[in-house]
Amino acid sequence: MSEPQRTPFVDSLLEAAAQARLPGSGIGWLDAARRENLEAFAAGGLPDTRMEAWKYTALRALGQRRFAPGDAQAATRSIDVSQFDLPGVDGPSLVFVNGVFRKDLSHVDQLPEGLSLQPLSQALLGDIEPLRFALSRHYREGGDVFARLNAALAGDGVVLRVAAGAQVKQAVRLLFIGAPAEGPLAWHVRHVIELGDGAELSLVEQHVSSGAQQDLGTQVADVVLRQGAKLRQVTLQKASEGSTLVRHDSVHLDADAHAELYVMELGGSLVRHDLHAVLAGDKSRLDTRGVFTLRGRQHIDTQMSIRHQALNTASESVWRGVADERSRGVFRGAIVVAEGADGSDASLSSKNLLLSGQAEIDTKPELEIYADEVKAAHGATVGQLDERSLFYLRSRGIPLAEARAMLTAAFCRAVFDGLADDGLREHINTQLMAHLPSA
Amino acid sequence: MNTTQPSTAHDDTKNAMTTETTERSDLSATTLRDNAEVAEALGRRYEAGFTTDIETEYLPAGLSEDIVRQLSALKNEPEWMTEWRLKAYRHWLTMPTPDWAKLNLSPIDYQSISYYAAPKSGPKSLDEVDPKLLETYDKLGVPLHERAKLAGVAVDAVFDSVSVGTTFRKELAEAGVIFCSMSEAIREHPELVQQYLGSVVPVGDNYFAALNSAVFSDGSFVFIPKGVRCPMELSTYFRINAINTGQFERTLIVCEDGAYVSYLEGCTAPMRDENQLHAAVVELVALEKAQIKYSTVQNWYPGDENGVGGIYNFVTKRGDCRGNDSKISWTQVETGSAITWKYPSCVLRGDRSVGEFYSVALTHHRQQADTGTKMIHIGKGTKSKIVSKGISAGRSSNSYRGLVKVEKGAEGARNYTQCDSLLIGKKCGAHTFPYMEVKNPTAIVEHEATTSKISDDQLFYCRSRGIGEEDAVSMIVDGFCKQVFRELPMEFAVEAKKLLEVSLEGAVG
Questions:
Q1: SS3 of B465, please?
Q2: Which residues contact A312 (CB under 8 A, 6 or more apart)?
Q3: What DSSP state is assigned to residue A29?
Q4: Residue B15: is its pLDDT beyond 50?
Q5: Spatial distance between the Cα atoms of B370 and B367, rounded to a whole number of angstroms
């Protein structure tokens, strides 16, 4: 590859790094990891579309933008958090404003037994050894440019642990609020989440905004499920219309662990979500359900890879995409069955609705199979609403626009049918209806 | 709920999965017993692996502008052709070797290859062809000469780099069909060649196409004039014989308005320990209402069971449906080559034009295949269908890589893709990389893929009916490929089936 150009984007972030006073600095290994990731970020710059992982997401425009290193007032901005409340989700919560932890808005006082929940900035002051493995990671893949950036600059985030055998009844909520500041700024959060043997947790990750801003947010999460652990995570992404949000989740499952991940992507102007899961233990299971609905000039890119590397593992993924107006939806779902992962059962479905002549959908389901005792299948479609169903509804006196909205919503909401929490499911459906095109 | 037409895809996929995850039952016991047989079968030799000892004229190994000029001079080519080659060569020099395919190969030394090898005797007509050469084709089962008449197939045979004989000249000429070697076409139909050559696969299209454009030695040229239905199936046999040579042939088929042709291509090579390079370019042009059916049975030497030797097969095949209502159909059976890198594509430019791709790719031992297709929908109401069957055995790797692209103007475009992979053994890999890019909201694009192994139930059923294990496997594989074999002309279907059987020997257990 040719020498990357030093873009205003890279320059502004390197300047931010130079003046950053990050929590935890002074810890030898952490400083080294931050420095090395920063060097890799500076050397690699932003990838272009010739790189496979970024084939459908051009970063040229982003490269020309500059971001302020952070929000000095983040700790004091007054924000009404109640507007983001979710029905039935009233357990412990951590709230971050522009990437900065807000104790005043969070609820961490009475944690259920077995749950440990604290912001990274605070965790770094205590026993940091358990964090070492996750935080000293190096991102060597050329496409992991934002993970490198995050590793270099993240000073806060979530450290969550559930002790072995503990079952946390109430859903834990992580709320990330983008608040308008003086100019576009960049924030970075880093999460380390671990569920001990047989632990159970329900987690809600919420990205919202309290106004219109054009920030860059990056998030890297390492999630580990020990033997027999169960995680249900619902991610609701409704960032502000002008914002850029890049999330990089790694999920590791030991034997008999089960993760259910629900993702709803509604907001943001440029959104990228990398989800890498490894089914490392026998009989582990992963279910992913996701919906992205786009309008305006939104660009949402989901890159999912699921690696089966133990016996009798299973994964099932159902994703739906809707692209309207001038938006572009990108989905890649790769399933890898490693040598020896006999008895794996993997399926993936990616169905997409293209509603406008200016919109585009690019989908790429992949299978990479190295074992023979497996079931693996994927299906992908790009199409439009069924004329006959539309006709049926209209013949019952429902106007065209409404009929289209009904069918589009039905297309999406099926994904969340399996979500056990009724209140949350209804909330998601309402949000979907509100976001979907009505004409 | 049925909100989109393709909405049943996922459910169907699930049902279509054939593998059972039951434990391996009596297989291992049988395997032990059959070990001796298997060992013998493993040693089975590549049947087309002989060499023919005839005098051959070479160009010295290496590639430079001088070599390109010499090659062009040897072939008495006009100035424009030489310039065309040089342009390609200069462009090739600026290109990096592609590395995106899922292939593991050692770098190719382009300077150690001789870019031209021709049987010295220089045949003028089929009767003058070296009898030894004819013998070779006999061994290969090519219906050249009398046998051609029986089979009713017109054959153009390319031996190393030079076209050695074209049968059925007269009959074809009466119909107005031009079927000759590329060198001849350059001499005798320069206006047609100039008009169409490189118009589908431009000189700088990709690394191997550029190389081919610079050094291609021969190939077939087919021209079917307006309204003519080619009276017989046309066919080319390619053979690499000489050592340290590469074969670079170029095929150009043009079908004018309303014309039809069915074209067959077959290939073999002797067994050698070095890897030999084959980089061909095939261009198809279909004008209004024209139809081209292109079938390939590729059986280049695959290398031995340890992956030594074998042909590197880097082929660019592309069809251009230029006219409205035209149709191009690719059918391929790929069993040979150490490495296959090949993506027969259709550019669906004309309104209501149709592209089809049917493929069986089988890899065994250490073969690697990265093959698939591209369907580019540009015209209104264009349709494409892709059926790909991959079979991996031994330690091989078999990938399907495809692109379905619907451009903004392709109102009502429709695509259906199905790719199934079958795994035989624990050390092989089967991969699917389909790209779908859709820019038109009236298009419907569907893709389905499954990966499975031969189910123990199926095997057990056959075995309980007294069918031996290998026969049972080849029966099941045959059934798996049926959808594609159906598309092949009859003689080819028989050959393809036989080829699969031979290639799969020793794969079970």
A1: coil
A2: A282, A283, A342, A343, A344, A345, B21
A3: H
A4: no
A5: 10
Count the alpha carbons within 13 Å of A304 in the hemisphere toward its beta carbon. Answer: 28
Chain A residues touching residue B441 (CB < 8 angstroms): 354-357, 359, 384
Cβ distance A368 to B429 less than 8 Å, yes or no, reads yes
| Type of residue numbered B278 | H
What's the CA gap between B404 and B447, in Å, rounded? 10
Give the SS3 label for residue A219. Answer: strand
Asked if residue A170 lies in contact with residue A204, where contact means CB atoms within 8 angstroms, the answer is: no
Interface of B with A in 246-305 (CB under 8 A): none
Q: Are B181 and B218 in contact (CB under 8 A)?
A: yes
On whether the CB atoms of residues B398 and A372 are closer than 8 A, the answer is: no
**Residues 361-400, chain A: which have Cβ within 8 Å of B?**
361-386, 389
Q: For residue A435, which amino acid is it?
A: H
- Helix A145-153 and helix A28-44: axis angle, to 10°? 140
| Residue type at position A355 | L
Q: List pLDDT tens digits, range A166-196.
A: 999 899 999 999 999 888 999 999 999 999 9
Convert the pLDDT of each residue in A86-102 to its tens digit. 988 889 999 999 999 99
Q: Which of A11, A66, A73 is nearest to A41 (CA)?
A: A11
Q: Does A305 touch chain B (CB under 8 A)?
A: no
User: Which is it for strands A314-323 and A230-237: parallel, antiparallel or unpaired?
Assistant: unpaired
In whole angstroms, give the CA distance from residue A151 to residue A134: 10
B10/A347 touch (CB, cutoff 8 Å), yes or no: yes
State the CB neighbour count (10 A cutoff) for residue B502.
Answer: 16
Query: Among B308, B287, B316, B311, which residue's Cα sits nearest to residue B298?
Result: B311
Q: Which residues of B254-274 are buried (b: 16+ CB within 10 A; e: fewer)?
A: bbbbbbbbbbbbbbbbbbbee
One-letter amino acid at B149 equals: K
User: Between β-strands A172-178 and A200-209, what pairing exists: parallel, antiparallel or unpaired?
Assistant: parallel
In chain B the first and final C-alpha atoms are separated, in Å, by 45
Q: How far apart are CA B338 and CA A364, in angstroms?
A: 27
Kindly state the tokens that stand for B10: 């996922």
3-class SS of residue B224? strand
Global pTM reads: 0.86
| Residue contact A389–B3, C-beta within 8 A | yes
Answer whether B325's CB lies under 8 Å from B351's CB. yes
For tokens 């016991």, what's the residue? B29
Per-position b or e across A234-270, b if 16+ CB within 10 A of its CB: bbbbbbbbbbbbbbbbbbbbbbbbbbbbbbbbbbbbb
Taking the C-alpha atoms of residue A243 and residue B321, their distance in angstroms, rounded to an integer, is 43
Pairwise CA distance, residues B376 & B241, whole Å? 37
Q: Are B234 and B262 in contact (CB under 8 A)?
A: yes
Q: Does A85 touch chain B (CB under 8 A)?
A: no
Q: Chain B: residue nearest A409 by CA? A: B3
Task: Give the whole-angstrom CA distance, residue B245 versus residue A242.
Answer: 59
Instruction: Find residue B339's DSSP bridge partners.
Output: B312, B368
Answer whether B447 sits within 8 Å of A365, measured CB to CB: yes
**How long a stretch of residues is chain A?**
439
For tokens 């090949």, the residue is B342
Q: Quick one: A432 exposed, middle or buried, by C-beta within 10 A (0-12, 13-18, 19+)?
A: buried
Q: How far apart are CA A410 and CA A417, in angstroms?
A: 11
H or E segment and range at residue B293 = strand B291-298
ipTM: 0.88
Least confident of A152-156, B444-448, B466-470: B466-470
Cα angle value A103/A169/A278 (rounded, 5°): 85
Taking the alpha carbons at both ends of chain A, their separation in whole angstroms is 45
